[in-house]
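Notes from the 1:1 (GR / supervisor)

We went over the backlog. Supervisor wanted to see one worked example end to end before approving the batch request, so GR pasted a single chain during the call. The sequence is below; no edits were made to it. Supervisor asked that the structure be written out right there so they could see what the output format looks like.
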Amino acid sequence: METQNGYVQAQTLDEAIDRLPQPYAEIDEEFLRKHQGELDVLRSIFDEKGGIHLVDVGGENACICRVPAREIITRIARHGQAGGNRSDPLALDLELVRLCLLYPKFESSTFGSWIAAAPGFPSAVAKKLLEIAKVTSEATAKKL
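Structure output shown during the call:
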């Protein structure tokens, strides 16, 4: 960790995530201001991979996610084609969210309570992640 302006600056993904409030704190303007340093580290890590996004599904249910990389989307698609339990749409949505969720942690009681209260929550987040992934993938054309 590095000291900057009298504050200890997180240097890695795990350090930055671990410095965010546990248990979960509502993500509002004050949260974003107070944890600017940690969010800057996350931004720098994922900058070339589509960045990080605040996904808000209403109420106090907002989470910070990375944009799914092509490898993640390919992995989810393969699971969907494999059949069995792995092709269950909810299971695929949960897997996508698990691979992209940065805060709160997927294993947290907060995330578990969100799923218990609204079983469609992972699908709403997964849908938004796929939309964001499409937007960050730009197509180019070259006249032949």
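Supervisor's comment: The chain is about 50% helix and 15% strand.
Batch request approved.
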